[in-house]
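From the pipeline queue, job 12 of 40. The input is one protein chain; the requested action is below.

Action: predict structure.
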Amino acid sequence: MAELSQFSILTYERRPGHWRAAITPVRQPTVSIKSTTISSIVTPNDFASELDAKVAAEKLIRKI
């Protein structure tokens, strides 16, 4: 389980009413998940609000 403080979350609106969040590790080296190195993750679904996108990103971080 990863710490929220180890990641930066950037929310963005893809089009009106469709929000996503990008998650990037704060420190180097990059995070490895099952032998795969990642530099960022984007939430897979659109959300109705910026807050919903941020909450989804935080849930993704906790799963890492």
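Job complete. The first helix runs from residue 50 to 63.
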